[in-house]
Amino acid sequence: MYQPRRANQRYCQDPECLREVHRWQAAKRQARRRLDAAAKAQHAAAERARRERRSSSPHPPDTPEVTPPRGHAADFFSPRPMCDRPGCYEPPPKVGRNQARYCCPACRQAVRRVIDRERKWRQRGTLQGRRAREREYQAARVRLSGQQHDDAGGMPPGPPPP
């Protein structure tokens, strides 16, 4: 499991991890674009022009007319929604009228933890956040000092036995 080094570090900084994140982001962008009507019309016009160029060329190509998709395009034959957790390509379940954003509760919780960590990191820079942090530290000091007195053989926790 990825543990960030800083509070505002959303993704692993390993080049392989970043490559995977960028691949996921591109797939997500492309899936969103495929749902747009203007993009569909633009793609259809480009394909018509390509077929026209191909039919007017003097030498027919030796390759078959339809080639199988390659790379990550093989996973996305039809435009379908993807999970909003980076790196997850699963489609969210269709429940009711509202489309879910995540494929499972684990993905939802992982993104929620990241957003919560970033929210806390941003709040620490504010006056309210610094005061809350100081109260937490004071409570921890009191709690630790109370435990030290109990461990040192101070007052017994209950009344003495008869």
If you had to describe this structure to a student in words, what would you say it looks like?
This protein has 162 residues and is mainly alpha-helical. Among the domains are: 10-55; 99-149, no CATH class. It is 52% helix and 0% strand.
Q: What secondary-structure arrangement, pairings included, does this model have?
A:
Layout: H1 15-34, H2 37-56, H3 105-123, H4 127-151
Query: Distance N terminus to C terminus?
Result: 55 Å
**Beta fraction:** under 5%
Q: For the CA atoms, what is the radius of gyration?
A: 28 Å
Count of helices?
A: 4
Helix and strand string, N-terminal first?
HHHH
Residue-averaged pLDDT: 78
Described by strand count, sense and barrel closure, the largest sheet is: none
> Poorly predicted ranges (pLDDT <50, ≥5 residues)?
none
Helix percent reads 40-55%
Number of distinct beta strands: 0
Shape label: elongated
In terms of structural class, how would the helical and strand content be classed? mainly alpha
Task: State the gist of this model.
The protein has 162 residues and is mostly helical. Helix content is 52%, strand content 0%. Among the domains are: 10-55; 99-149, no CATH class.
